[in-house]
Amino acid sequence: MRAATAYLLAGWAAACASSGAHAAPAAVPAAAATPAPRGATGTAAESLSVNRPQYPSTYQRHPYPPVVITNATIMTAAGQEIPHASILFREGQIVAVGATVQAPSDAIKVDGTGKWVTPGIIDVHSHLGVYAAPATDAESDGNELTGPVTAEVWAEHSFWPQDPQIPLAIAGGVTTIQALPGSGNLIGGRSAVLKLIPTRTVQAMKFPGAHYGLKMACGENPKRVYGRRNQFPSTRMGNVAGYRGAFIQAEEYRRKWDAWNRDHKGDPPDRNLRLETLAEVLRGNIYVQNHCYRADEMAQMLDLAREFGFKIRAFHHAVESYKIGDLLAQAGTASAVWADWYGFKEEAMDGIQQNAALLQQAGARITLHSDDPGGIQRLNQETAKAMYAGQRAGIPVTRDQALRWITANPAWVLGLDSVVGTLEPGKMADVVLWSGDPFSVYSKAVQVYNDGWLVYDRNDPAHQPRSDFELGQEPPPGSDR
User: Fold this and answer.
1) Are 115 and 447 in contact (CB under 8 A)?
2) At 13, which CATH number?
3) Could you read off the pLDDT of 201-225 as tens digits, one per residue?
4) Residue 131: DSSP 8-state
5) Which helix (H) or strand (E) is 3 found in, with range?
6) In a domain, 83, yes or no
7) N or C: which end of the chain has fewer CB within 10 A?
8) Is 295 inside a domain boundary?
9) Cα–Cα distance between 409 and 454 in angstroms, integer?
10) In this structure, are residues 341 and 356 in contact, taking their beta carbons and an 8 Å threshold?
11) Burial, 477: exposed, middle or buried (Cβ in 10 Å; 0-12, 13-18, 19+)?
C-alpha cells in the first residue's frame, strides 16, 4: 500500500487533451506562449490590451505507449456504432478505428470483449475546483458577489487542483470540463477549459488553445442577490440595463485600444481588466456562456447580443429551450441542459423531460451538463434518461445523436470540435472503455484515457488518482470506490 500511495502521489504531482449543423468558428490569432492543439479550429486569445502572455497553459501530454482496444463495440459519436471493432491510438492521437486495425508490436493490447468504447465525456458547466469539497466557506470561491458585473475575475484563479471531486469525475469518464464562475452576478467572469488530469497547478490542466468563456446570468439569481441588498439590479429590466451599460463601456474601450494598436500614437489607453474581458467578447475571442432558464429571457439575450454584435455560444440550464428551438437553431446557439432537473425555483418550473429531444428535433444544438459534483459522475446515465424520454414521446433520437450531447456537441461549445469529441483518426485520444452499454445504469467506466494516457483504471489502484485531501482515507478492502 505504501508503494502504491507513493506512486499516486508522484502521478498527481507530476502529471503535467449533435446535430453538427453549424460551422466551426474561424481561427483567431494564437498566443505565442500557448501552442494550439492538433487541428484546433480556435485558439486561446490574449488580450489586445497587453502584449505579453497572461497565465498561459503549461499542459504537457503525459507519455504513454501505443494502445489498441480490441473486440469492443465502438461508438464514434461520428455516425457509427461498430460491433467487434478495434481502436488504436498512439502519442495522444487516434490512429485507426474499425473492424480491422493493424497495431504495432509495442502496443498495449486491451481486450474489449463485452465492453464499449466512447469518446471522453465533456462537461461544459462545472464548478469543480471553484466550489471544492468539503464545501466549507474556505472552498467557496465561485461567486465574486461584490458587484453585479465582475468580468475581471477568472475562474482559474480560484480553481483548486486538489479538489477530491476531480478523481470521482474522472472515474465517471469525464476528460474535459469548463469550470465556470457562479451565477450570482450579471457577468460573473471568465471560465477555464481544463483537461481533467491530476496535476499540481491549474495552468497544467488548461486545454491548450481553448477559448475562454464569459459567464453571464439572467433571471432570478442576480436580481435576488442585489435586490435583497437594496442595490441595482432588483428586477429583470435592471438586469438588462446592467448588461447594456457594461457593453457600452466595453465598446468604447475596444475602440480606443483598436485605434492605438493600429496607429501606435501616443501612450496606450489605461488598462481596465473588466472592460478588457468584455472587449474580447466583442471581438469574438471569448465565448459567452449564458445561465438562463426562461424562453422569453433567452430571446431577450439573443436581442442583446445582436445589439452589441456578439454571439451567445450556449445557454446553460435552459429548461425552457424547447419553446424556442427554432430561434436557437437560427441563431446557432447551443443549449446546455439537464435531463430532468427542474422545478426547484420559479423560473425552473416549466421544464420537461423531453427538452433535449425536442431541441434535437428542431435542429438546435444540445449538450447535457452537470452543474453538480454528483451529476458529473453519471453524465452517461443522464444522457440515457434524456434520450429515452424523447423516444417514449415519439421523438426520434438515435444513440449516436444522444452520445454527441456529451461529446461532440460540448466540444463545439468550447470551440474544440476539430480536436476532441469523436473517435476519428487524427483526433486527440480522449477515450473511455465502459464495462457495458454506456447508456445502461449498470455500466461503469473501466478505463479512461486522456490524450492517450491511462489516467484511470478501475481494476488497477496504480491508475486511480487521488487528491492529497483523500490520503489516509483508504476504502475498506474489497470495496468498489
Assistant:
1) no
2) 3.20.20.140
3) 999 999 999 999 999 999 999 999 9
4) B
5) helix 2-14
6) yes
7) N
8) yes
9) 24
10) no
11) exposed
